[in-house]
Amino acid sequence: MSSIANQVIDREAFYDIIDITDKHQWAKERYDELMNLWDLCYSRDERSLLKELIDDFFVLDKKEERFVSDEINKYFKKKNLKSDKTFIVSVCDVGKNDGSLSGLKILSQKITPTNEWKDSYINHISELKGKLNNCSNIVIFDDFIGSGNKIIKKYDWLAKVISNENLNIEKFNIFIVSFTAMKFGIKIIKENLNVEVYCPKELDKGISEKNSIIDRYFKIKLMLKIEKKLSDTYDNRPLSKYSLGYGKSESLYYWENISCPNNVFPIFWWERLKSNEMHKTLLMRVR
């Protein structure tokens, strides 16, 4: 079967793609991926919506990476967190490698003095066992917070680890820290946990929180129509679970050259089409 990227696209689509690649450094080498995406659209309205969303993406590039890391460093100093009394633990599951681990490595180069903090970074919550007696502060870290559900689950896991050490979680100051987060996700965390949440960059939902009621209804309906071009299942996962992004997050976030979370609209990362054909997606998602 011939690649979608080899198909001819119309002049209007061509100008759209040129405009996107001119405006966004991260998209400059993604002509094929953009052509694939535009080829899935049956109307100008669909293409206009995708272009609007792409223009609104927050991309964590090297410059933004430095900014959010520096802001977290300032936050630690503001909270008077000391390296000998603090652990920074990623939410990564044991045996996996995700964005939270990549982010933890970046923080290890940014939290100063770096040499004093080098033993404070913990890859997995379970690795805190046997290390908590002299600890006062625990920072739960993820590179991105979407719906907030993952953080709540990881907090519960941390509480079990602490309880198994015959300690009370009330003994610790718990902080949730992330490079970037959805505002609604932060709200859910605060409603469920008595913890402080800090994220240098907070994002609105890509459609629902950026449009009037009428436009919101029209654009959501349009996006659901576009999603019908995608396979109902992929990698044993139902598309319905990720429609509009996991937890209906409507996220417009991408960590350049790393990955995008499943909270992002699936049209940008779901690799299997309704025809069962695989195609090159605009964004890479590492599972």
Word description of this protein:
This is PRTase-CE domain-containing protein. It holds the Pfam family PRTase-CE. Residues 43-272 form the PRTase-CE domain. The structure is a single chain. The protein folds into 2 domains: 4-56 and 206-268, no CATH class; 72-203, Rossmann fold (3-Layer(aba) Sandwich), CATH 3.40.50.2020. The protein is 37% helix and 15% strand. The protein contains 9 helices and 10 strands. The strands form 3 sheets. Strands 2, 3, 4, 5, 6 and 7 form a 6-stranded parallel β-sheet that branches. The protein has a two-stranded parallel ribbon with strand order 1-10. Strand 5, helix 8 and strand 6 form a beta-alpha-beta unit.
- Percent of residues in β-strands: 5-15%
Q: Work out the helix count.
A: 9
What's the story with the biggest beta sheet? 6 strands, parallel
Which architecture name of the largest domain does CATH use? Answer: 3-Layer(aba) Sandwich
Helix content range of the residues, please?
25-40%
What fold name stands as the CATH topology of the largest domain?
A: Rossmann fold
Count of domain modules: 2
Q: Shape, please? A: elongated
Q: What does the average pLDDT come to?
A: 93
Order of helices and strands: HHHEHEHHEEHEHEEHEEE
